[in-house]
Amino acid sequence: MSNREGRKGGHRGRRGGHRGRRGPRGSGRGAVLPLPEGIQRFAKAWTVVLTPSTLNLVTAGHPWLYSGAVAHTLPPLDSAAAESAIQCGVFGPDGEAIGHGVLNQKSQIRVRILALWPKAIETPTIPSLAEHVTSAMQRAHALREAFGLPAPQTDAMRLVNSEGDGLPGLVVDQMSDGAVVLVSTAAAAQMASTVERWLVEHGAKWVVIRSAGDTHPSEELAPGVISQSGQVPSEVWIEHHGLKLRAEPLGGQKSGLYTDQFANHVHVAQLCRDRNILDCYSHGGGFGLHAARAGAKAVRCVDASQKAVDLCSANAERNDLTQQVQAWCADAVHVLSDIADGVDPNRPDLIIIDPPKFATRADVVDDALRKYVHLNATAMSALPDGGILVTCSCSGRIDQTHFVRMIAHAARKAGRHVQLLELRGPAADHPSAPAHGESRYLKVAICRVTSR
Fold it and tell me: Span 18-33, mean pLDDT?
């Protein structure tokens, strides 16, 4: 497995600590809150009542309710439905209608909100899961169309971005004439068949549904392919701004593509003409290949996974870029250290570091930040005066404020002066709710590094 790990870090364990905005938790202790008088019940869905302290963040659009945020959970009126029902209606501590979602009583994230009800609704209803999914798919498709996606220069994009499109735990990446659906929750697995049907009805020639592979045990999802329709190719070559890039729908990392960095690959390439480039944690070479196509003098792509290096080499060969692009199987920190120490004389003018998700859990955030500081300080030390550093983080538990602060600490450790030129994230095909900071996991900073 490449050390360019999966990006979506949402539901694993407890969202924690002091890094970034916390999801609705409630106090989790104290006196039992009384059940609101006349609380609405549903025939085939659960009723969930919130604690008072969680109400504001939920109504602002945060889609996760942790176990401590739930004061009461009432089963469906139809007792036969109680075992299999996952849908729920969510109400405030005074009985006010909030929205509907999906329930997992084994997970720390007890409820994932699907949609908020209109304010002051008197008798809310819960659509079937299939109805909600169909409506959400239509809205997601309309959003991409409104932004001209997929753009004429590419035939791949993120069609559904989990909570950002009202389908928690589910992403859809469109690839040429087909699509890969990744599910990371039990509820998403139940939604997937409707998603598959919608995609086929709207022109997909093949669809594969896979477990994300890093799901929490409480979701009870086995890794691998769940279902598929049509003739799913073992590999597909997608078009992206003049390049052909190989994806592996049945077994590549995540969906087989990192669509969240697509716009950044093209943007950073504009800085690369006549420069020597080092692309660390390169995976398939998205940054490096675009740099070469844009006129870079030479590009070195480094990844610790031989499989990723082979993919990068195949992409370079397909695009006639083997003269400019070299793919190395090596540890990025060691390569950067050798350059900084003068062991490797091939000093780059621009370094890209796009490492794996260091902060996989709340209890490792501080260790992760130390790793990020060390990595970035080493990269800064490897750059000449006036060099460009493009540094990325896909750790959702580290927000943008702490990410930028990390860059400042790295500059101090390296003894370099750093100018922050630009902060970026994914493109418009990765929407998120403003209240859901955890979903804005990707941070990209473009910096100029000079001597003090």
Answer: 54
Length of the chain as a residue count: 452
- pLDDT exceeds 70 at position 18: no
d(CA 214, CA 221) in angstroms, rounded, equals 9
Is 18 inside any structural domain?
A: no
Q: Could you read off the pLDDT of 81-92 as tens digits, one per residue?
A: 888 889 999 999
Q: Does 122 share its domain with 137? A: no
What does the pLDDT read at residue 25? 62
What pLDDT is attached to residue 214? Answer: 74
Q: Is residue 26 part of a domain?
A: no
What does residue 226 show for φ and ψ, rounded to 5 degrees? Answer: -95, -45
List beta partners, residue 48.
73, 90
Separation of alpha carbons 349 and 335, rounded Å: 15
Provide the pLDDT for residue 23.
Answer: 60
Check pLDDT > 60 for residue 79: yes
The answer to whether residue 249 is domain-embedded is no
Tell which of 98, 126, 154 closes a domain: 126
Q: Do residues 277 and 353 both lie within one domain? A: yes
CA distances from 10 to 16, 24, 180 (A): 11, 14, 19
CATH of the domain at 315: 3.40.50.150
Tell whether 20 is covered by a domain: no
In the listed set 126, 143, 168, which residue is the last one of a domain according to the structure? Answer: 126
419 and 299 in a common domain: yes
209-257 pLDDT, tens digit each:
999 877 888 898 888 999 999 999 999 999 999 999 999 999 877 777 8
For the chain, how many structural domains are there in total? 3
The number of beta carbons lying within 10 Å of the beta carbon of residue 56 is 11
Q: How far is CA 288 from CA 10, 275, 302, 324, 336, in A?
A: 28, 12, 10, 10, 16
Q: 87 lies in which domain range?
A: 46-126
Per-residue model confidence (pLDDT) at position 8:
37
Per the DSSP assignment, residues forming a β-bridge with 46 are 88
Tell me the whole-structure pTM to 2 decimals.
0.89
Same structural domain, 109 and 189: no
Which residue in the block uniquely carries the two structure tokens 């003049």? 242
